[in-house]
Design a protein that fits this description.
The structure holds 3 protein chains of 3 kinds. Helix content of chain A is about 25%, strand content about 25%. Chain A is of the alpha+beta class. Chain A has one domain: GHMP Kinase, N-terminal domain (Ribosomal Protein S5, domain 2), CATH 3.30.230. In chain A, a hairpin with a 2-residue loop joins strand 2 and strand 3. In chain C, the strands form 4 sheets. In chain C, strands 1, 2, 3, 4, 5 and 6 form a 6-stranded mixed sheet that branches. Chain C has a 4-stranded antiparallel sheet with strand order 12-11-13-14, with helices on both faces. Chain C has a two-stranded antiparallel sheet with strand order 7-10. Chain C is elongated. In chain C, about 50% of the residues are buried. Classes of the chains: A alpha+beta, B alpha+beta, C alpha+beta. At the B-C interface, strand 2, strand 3, strand 4 and strand 5 of B face strand 3 and strand 6 of C.
Chain lengths: ~280, ~240, ~290
């Protein structure tokens, strides 16, 4: 949106207020009873609502809500590739991932930034192995995923949502893909972290400054029926055993989500049949 | 620039050269395996890598020419090549202009009529820049084209010259380039002494032009001797390795 | 990435070789190809290194600039990774052709270095909320001969180790305004501790086996790979899968194990080599650069 900078003088740079305010929540991320701020256990996933067919114009679509995380995905195509040079014998898939401008604490830009580009590539890599590309040569499938609200684990939600949207579009797939995130802070591993848990460097507020505790974030994409991992993305320090443990926990949680997705797809098919 | 004399009383330049002296040229052919031809040239502190691909079928949206080959040049500079960090390695106006100049230079030297409906790519990468980017790029590209075995009318040798402190100076470095004097760049085919590219910036008195131009052409011929030596050495090595097998 | 054409017979040959732990160039599954390393190759940068891993050629320059710290880490400096895929490597990279690969490499590096224990960014801070060092790590890819990520990570670590930043003293003048004084003595400089910095190990799954340091031929036989950033003591600072295939959970665990083994060894070898290089630089060694 063009802004008239000559008439409306604005400061050259702005700082979001939360960097200035002294207020910090006093409760710890995990209390003595092992409960997290929202009352969950460490290995508990947030209640998840999933709906296939949320956008009527798209060939397939899905909407996922995990408490504060809300993601919507739409699938168009497969469309014919117009340029002859771009022909390939296996189908092509394009994925655009976007944080809505209002979705995060700080305002996001309209144009795709590097983080979004990278996440787009990651999601594409996670979804591609599940889609039968040989079924649509010389054509391209387009997946658009928008995060409406980022309440943590947006990538995992986007992967799940994207795969349900592809399935809803009636594309032939080997399996659905389920994403799951894990946050490791010191010895604690928290499944499906919220934004708070994603950004904190340590469990208690007092030693927030210290860099002693190791922390990591891992997101895994699993195809549950054929037991194949299509993508892992991890950052932060983990020992080799920690990494194995984190992987295992993510996989276990992802498997638990499988019935939810099955049920949602069944419902979508039933609704389509009724129409 | 105050306090810096471009020519000392004893007749030496900032880096200790005489006015008619080139910087040290070191070069090598066949640096990489993947391209059809590649070369590396160092002229003092300016270091340039060049790679040549082709002739091959035109790619992308390049239009085939029925009577001659399309020459496609790309000039880029590493982001760490200059004193101040460059934001983008290519795509700015200066490098676009240089790409175009390179293309014009080599269209005049390559026997373009031999490969109709094809394309030759020349990619130049400046790793470290200390003046004379165009000249070193041309010299590196010439060597890369020779390494690729592409027929040319002759070597193309480029050299710059300037007129500072009432003296013509050859092969000027970055400090001399930025001192505000004129910069005359010339590329020639040394054997036939034909000029294939000539450019000059800021003003220069008409009377001095010939002196500076002669200086630059002399420089080009000296460059030619250096390049020719490298090529001959390289060929001896290559043929030796063939006969050894 | 650069694609090569290969026949079915060649693929089978490579596949069978890997099954028997003998690869087409005679290596075992966890062996690297010879690596050449040289530091201080570009004089306009604060630190630089060139790595040639068989046919993959990477040049890295580190330039330090003064900048403003980011809001959430006011006391820390930061690293900015920028990858440029030179068209010298393949004509496909011409113009903006290499940008996807460049982004993949730079974000993997950013993730690998984004952990407080592997690089002390607090040491790069100068004045809280006001000034800090921003290290621009610029990576130039000159030739792709397989296994780019590993080559890039080695070069980045070597270049950071080679980086010399001038010492900065902060003073207050009479008006209580802070003044920065930058030392102009080239020997009065600070170094960056890189002992805990990670190296990336890429494990490519070929058939039922996985291999490190895949050549271009081997890469074209492999559908999925796992990249692991490993420090010398074996902790993993980042990992990521890539490629169009998927992996079995058990094989991922195996791959992590091999990644750790190969990574710790690679780090040890690199440290020894860097030490050797340091001694050479001290005795005014002649940089060979691309003339060798």
């Amino acid at each position: 949106m063009p802004v008239d900078n000559r008439r409306l003088w604005t400061p050259e740079e702005t700082i979001p207020p939360e960097f200035i305010t002294k207020y910090r929540p006093t409760t710890e991320l995990v209390n003595q009873n092992g409960k997290r701020r929202d009352g969950r256990e460490a290995n508990q996933h947030r209640p998840t609502y999933l709906k296939a067919g949320a956008i009527s114009q798209a060939k397939g679509s899905a909407y996922i809500e995990m408490a504060d995380t809300k993601v919507i995905a739409a699938v168009y195509g497969p469309r014919e590739v117009m340029k002859r040079e771009d022909f390939t014998m296996s189908g092509q898939v394009k994925c655009v991932f976007k944080f809505a401008t209002f979705s995060c604490k700080t305002r996001q830009k309209h144009i795709e930034d590097d983080r979004e580009k990278e996440l787009s590539m990651t999601i594409l890599e996670a979804l591609k192995p599940a889609i039968r590309l040989d079924k649509f040569p010389k054509a391209r499938l387009e997946i658009f995923i928008t995060v409406l609200q980022d309440g943590g684990s947006a990538l995992a939600a986007a992967i799940t949502c994207g795969s349900v949207a592809v399935a809803d579009a009636g594309m032939e797939m080997y399996d659905v893909v389920i994403g799951c995130s894990l946050r490791q802070i010191g010895e604690r591993s928290l499944i499906d972290p919220t934004t708070d848990e994603e950004s904190h460097r340590s469990l208690s507020q007092s030693d927030e400054k210290s860099n002693e505790t190791s922390q990591a974030m891992m997101t895994v994409a699993l195809m549950p029926s054929i037991n194949q991992v299509s993508s892992i993305i991890q950052k932060g320090e983990l020992s080799i055993d920690g990494a194995k443990q984190a992987l295992k926990q993510c996989l276990d949680t992802a498997r638990k989500l499988h019935p939810v997705i099955k049920q949602c797809l069944n419902k979508a098919v039933e609704a389509k049949l009724k129409r | 620039m105050a306090g810096m004399e471009l020519l000392s009383d004893q007749g030496f330049r900032i880096d200790g050269r005489k006015p008619c002296e080139l910087r040290r040229i070191q070069s090598k052919l066949g640096v990489f395996g993947k391209p059809d031809g590649s070369a590396y040239v160092e002229q003092g502190n300016t270091k340039v890598l060049a790679a040549v691909y082709g002739p091959h079928e035109p790619r992308g949206n390049i239009v085939k020419l029925q009577d001659k080959v399309v020459i496609n040049c790309q000039f880029s500079m590493a982001t760490f090549s200059t004193g101040e960090r460059k934001r983008r390695p290519r795509g700015d106006r200066k490098s676009m202009e240089l790409s175009m100049h390179l293309q014009q230079t080599f269209e005049a030297a390559i026997m373009t009529e031999l490969y109709p409906q094809s394309q030759i790519d020349i990619y130049v990468e400046v790793l470290q820049s200390d003046g004379g980017n165009y000249c070193t790029s041309v010299n590196a590209a010439t060597l890369a084209l020779i390494d690729a075995g592409i027929p040319m009318k002759d070597y193309v040798c480029a050299c710059s010259a300037s007129y500072l402190d009432d003296t013509p100076m050859v092969d000027i470095n970055y400090l001399e380039e930025s001192s505000g004097g004129t910069e005359l760049i010339v590329s020639i085919l040394p054997k036939s002494e034909q000029i294939v590219f000539l450019s000059s910036n800021s003003r220069l008195h008409e009377d001095c032009l010939n002196k500076v131009l002669d200086m630059a052409i002399k420089g080009c011929k000296d460059v030619y001797l250096c390049l020719d030596e490298t090529v001959r050495e390289h060929m001896t090595q290559v043929s030796a390795s063939f006969s050894a097998d | 990435m650069a694609e090569i054409l290969m026949s079915e017979a060649e693929r089978t040959f490579i596949l069978h070789g890997i099954q028997d732990n003998v690869r087409s160039d005679g290596r075992g599954c966890e062996d690297y190809r010879p690596i050449e390393l040289e530091t201080e190759v570009v004089s306009n940068a604060n630190g630089s290194a060139r790595v040639r891993l068989a046919n993959s050629d990477v040049l890295v320059g580190v330039k330090g600039e003064l900048g403003k710290p980011s809001l959430d880490t006011p006391e820390h400096g930061r690293l900015e990774f920028f990858v440029d895929c030179s068209a010298n490597a393949t004509p496909d990279f011409e113009g903006r052709g290499g940008e996807d690969l460049a982004l993949e490499i730079s974000s993997m590096l950013a993730r690998a270095y984004d952990c407080p224990s592997c690089l002390d960014t607090q040491a790069l801070g100068i004045i809280k909320r006001e000034q800090c060092w921003v290290l621009y790590v610029d990576i130039l890819i000159l030739e792709c001969g397989g296994n780019l990520f590993d080559a890039v990570a080695i070069a980045v670590k070597a270049a950071l180790g080679n980086t010399k930043l001038p010492v900065i003293t902060v003073r207050k003048d009479e008006n209580d305004e802070t003044e920065l004084e930058i030392s102009d003595d080239p020997y009065d400089c600070e170094r960056i501790k890189i002992l805990n910095a990670p190296c990336i190990v890429t494990l490519s799954k070929v058939g039922n086996q996985h291999i490190v340091d895949a050549s271009l031929q081997e890469e074209s036989c492999c559908l999925s790979r796992l990249m692991v950033a490993v420090t010398e003591n074996g902790t993993i600072t980042a990992s990521k899968t890539s490629g169009s295939g998927s992996l079995n959970p058990e094989s991922i665990i195996d791959m992590l194990e091999s990644g750790k083994r190969a990574g710790t060894l690679l780090n040890k070898t690199l440290h020894a080599k860097l030490l050797e290089e340091e001694v050479k630089v001290g005795t005014k060694k002649k940089t060979m650069g691309f003339l060798t």
